[in-house]
């Protein structure tokens, strides 16, 4: 049979494919036993695939297809996992998936010897093979490799989900991400986009003169945010320690030390609830710019997010779950107080005291209103009634000082701070401000937060006297920014859950 007449009749009755029908648990166990028996037989023949250390693959599936005209008739070596097999007597087709896609391989008995062909017929879906052969196109126009040699590089002892249903169990997808990546190619694309987004963000910051640094993950004081930390113990030092909830205070120490522009992208850990937007272990990027202010880091936020979208999605206009968001700078701006006024008609320009603010809070069903200050009530009303309306992208500004222990006060109104949060799709994706560099003010705010901590607020900010000492040494005016990288990736990759863009999300152990 000449190459031009090679057929790939995928609908023939005698063609078999990867577990196309549902398999009972009894049959599944039997199939696993058979695979182990096949491995034992290979070992008896001196063909143990697990003794192989390497294979000299010199081409990927995607490269062969894209450069077919130049590669037709050329010798290539490819390696990957068998995803389908179609046996037709003395000739077979298999689909081999590698890191860049999938390619068809044509295997003839007379091309690889009858003995090798018999061994090849024992290969299973999921096995990893190396193929050496020549590039050609079937009569149906599919770019393929005609095998001259095929080697088993690893034996799969498990049964992959069938090709029609794939791995659909959501919990199992996250627990067995390795199977998810094999059976659902679109999942791989999500994590390719994640890598592009991270690379674009770092590239922008590098171009802007920011220095990438590393700061401690294990710390005695988990500061820089209002969140409950994970706690652990260092045996040698007999010391209680915590996983960081933020890297903010260490990065600011570097500003004190003379680095004018620094950033760090890394894992943070918060002992809090889990939902589609929250994972206890998540990725945050924080930057600090000496001699910069709130507006400077707002501009960085716009550039970081819009350029990430351009790099991964090819446009600053993205689609998320059927909705369109234009990330092109500049973004809208709205104060927290004005957002509350627009939504509820409550004008805090006319409410000057805690008592009157509590009356407004009670009218809108805010819990424990009698314990709250005017600023806390503004924040509570905003969170309860306004966040869900923020399609964005939009910057919310004017945060009360009570909820912003690390931000500089607004000279025009000392009750609020020079802080912003960026919202897209009702989600907070960034938080930044003109940093508080007054050590006396900072110490008092830490004291207030410490009192809240001691009264039972597990998320209040602890006292950090060494950080206050750093401010006493002197920190220049500084703009700071934190970006929730996972949420940005969710938006750009159109992922419905944070667990879809984290390779191995936090999971409760599976029941026995």
Cα Rg: 30 Å
Going by helix content, strand content and strand pairing, the class is alpha+beta
CATH homologous superfamily (4th level) name of the largest domain: Bira Bifunctional Protein, Domain 2
Morphology call: elongated
CATH architecture term of the largest domain:
2-Layer Sandwich
Counted by DSSP, the helix tally is 16
The largest sheet, given as strand count, sense and whether it forms a barrel, is: 8 strands, mixed
Q: How much beta, percentage-wise?
A: 25-35%
Overall number of structural domains: 2
The CATH class name of the largest domain reads Alpha Beta
Low-confidence segments, ≥5 residues, pLDDT <50?
Answer: 9-21
Quick take:
The protein is of the alpha+beta class and 512 residues long. The chain has helices spanning 25-44, 61-66, 68-71, 109-112, 114-120, 170-175, 177-183, 185-207, 248-256, 294-313, 336-344, 354-363, 374-386, 439-454, 465-473, 485-493, and strands spanning 75-88, 91-98, 101-108, 128-137, 143-154, 211-212, 218-219, 231-234, 239-243, 261-269, 281-290, 317-320, 323-326, 332-335, 394-397, 409-410, 413-417, 419-424, 427-434, 478-484.
């Amino acid at each position: 049979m000449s190459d031009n007449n090679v057929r790939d009749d995928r609908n023939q009755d005698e063609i078999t494919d990867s577990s196309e029908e549902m398999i009972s648990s009894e049959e599944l166990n039997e199939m696993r036993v058979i695979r182990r028996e096949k491995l034992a037989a290979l070992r008896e023949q001196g063909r143990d695939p697990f003794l192989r250390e390497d294979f000299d693959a010199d081409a990927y599936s995607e490269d062969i297809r894209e450069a077919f005209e130049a590669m037709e008739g050329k010798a290539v070596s490819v390696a990957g996992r068998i995803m389908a097999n179609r046996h037709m007597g003395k000739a077979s087709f298999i689909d081999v998936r590698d890191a860049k896609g999938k390619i068809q391989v044509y295997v003839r008995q007379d091309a690889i010897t009858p003995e090798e062909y018999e061994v090849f017929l024992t290969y299973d879906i999921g096995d990893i093979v190396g193929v050496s052969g020549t590039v050609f196109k079937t009569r149906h126009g599919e770019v393929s490799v005609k095998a001259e040699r095929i080697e088993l590089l690893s034996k799969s002892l498990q049964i992959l989900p069938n090709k029609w249903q794939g791995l659909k169990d959501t919990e199992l997808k996250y627990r067995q991400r390795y199977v998810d990546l094999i059976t659902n190619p679109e999942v791989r694309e999500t994590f390719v986009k994640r890598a592009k987004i991270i690379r674009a963000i770092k590239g922008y910051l590098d171009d802007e003169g920011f220095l990438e640094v590393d700061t401690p993950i294990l710390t005695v004081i988990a500061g820089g945010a209002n969140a409950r930390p994970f706690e652990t113990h260092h045996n040698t030092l007999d010391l209680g320690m915590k996983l960081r909830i933020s890297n903010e205070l260490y990065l600011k120490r570097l500003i004190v030390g003379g680095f004018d522009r620094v950033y760090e992208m890394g894992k943070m850990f918060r002992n809090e609830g889990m939902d589609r937007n929250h994972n206890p272990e998540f990725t945050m990027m924080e930057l600090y710019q000496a001699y910069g202010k709130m507006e400077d880091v707002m501009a960085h936020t716009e550039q970081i997010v819009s350029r990430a979208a351009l790099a991964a999605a090819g446009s600053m206009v993205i689609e998320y779950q059927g909705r369109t968001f234009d990330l092109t700078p500049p973004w809208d701006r709205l104060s927290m107080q004005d957002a509350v006024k627009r939504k509820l008609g409550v004008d805090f320009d006319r409410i000057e005291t805690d008592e009157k603010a509590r009356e407004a809070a009670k009218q809108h069903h805010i819990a424990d209103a009698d314990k709250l200050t005017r600023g806390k009530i503004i924040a509570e009303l905003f969170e309860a009634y306004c966040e869900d309306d923020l399609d964005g992208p939009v910057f919310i500004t004017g945060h009360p000082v009570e909820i912003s222990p690390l931000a500089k006060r607004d000279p025009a109104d000392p009750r609020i701070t020079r802080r912003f949060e960026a919202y897209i799709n009702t989600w907070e994706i960034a938080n930044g401000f003109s940093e508080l560099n007054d050590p006396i003010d900072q110490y008092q705010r830490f004291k207030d937060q410490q009192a809240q901590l001691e009264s039972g607020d597990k998320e209040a900010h602890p006292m950090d006297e060494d950080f206050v000492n750093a401010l006493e040494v002197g920190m220049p005016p500084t703009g700071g920014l934190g970006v929730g990288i996972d949420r940005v990736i969710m938006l750009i990759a159109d992922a419905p859950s944070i667990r879809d863009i984290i390779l191995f999300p936090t999971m409760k152990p599976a029941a026995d």
